[in-house]
Amino acid sequence: MLVAGNWKMNTDVPEGRALADAIAEDLSSASSDLGNVDVLVCPSHVHLPAVLDALADTPVTVGAQDMHAEDEGAYTGDVSAPMLTSIGCDAVILGHSERRKYYDETDAEVNAKVKQARAHGLVPIVCVGETLEQRKAGEADTVVQNQVDGALSGVSIDGPDDLVVAYEPIWAIGTGESAEPEQAQEMHAVIRDDLAGRYGGDVADEVPLLYGGSMKPHNAYGLLSQPDIDGGLIGSASLAAESFLGIAEKAVEVLAASED
Ligand code: 13P
Questions:
Q1: What's the CATH number where 104 sits?
Q2: N or C: which end of the chain has fewer CB within 10 A?
Q3: Number of folded domains in the chain?
Q4: Segments forming the whole domain that contains residue 116
Q5: Ligand 1 pocket check for 66: Cβ under 6 Å
Q6: Which parts of the chain have pLDDT scores under 50?
């Protein structure tokens, strides 16, 4: 199970540092045991050194929210995979719907970035998801499958540490209206099938599939207990240690219940 926070463009650096410190402090308390739940935070590029430092002695890993597909060059304002790995980043969110919407990022660009992440040992967290109009038109499955196929075309993976896919229905992001657990499960099963066709069932079964879109402590248990939901990509609830780790605690509970 993986609980990942996408801080988006929130907090200044001292505030982000304080948030990371609060996460570290909560995790160091005797009552806190994440068991087999992995926790990842993805702050802005500017925050990364401070957040990496704050979380250095914790099990929490740190990722970025985007990066360029080239190693280096005249790309003013951009950040490369070697820059991220050189400071200790483990993962990178790619193809988030906000980047597709506001920066016109295409599946081909996401695909190039996924290949670049793989080439540099960063775990790509590939985001996919449909709009409300697409869902109402009965196109959700096709839209999501096309995004998965576009992002992963020509991408080889060998195991669960090489890829994460996050299903984030656009209508659920930042709206407070999460998908119903069964609704999210249906799409996760579609994605799992797609991955099985591409990489074989054994690998597909182990690739973490995250749900994202208004996941909070109060709805996390229902979502995370679905068979094909392996964690969450959390936006606004990741901006406070209490709600973020509250979701991680739900993940711990789900795992404990599944072992009973
Ligand atoms: P919210 O949890 O704020 O809906 O954001 C989800 C998201 O976009 C994570 O990447």
A1: 3.20.20.70
A2: C
A3: 1
A4: 2-259
A5: no
A6: none
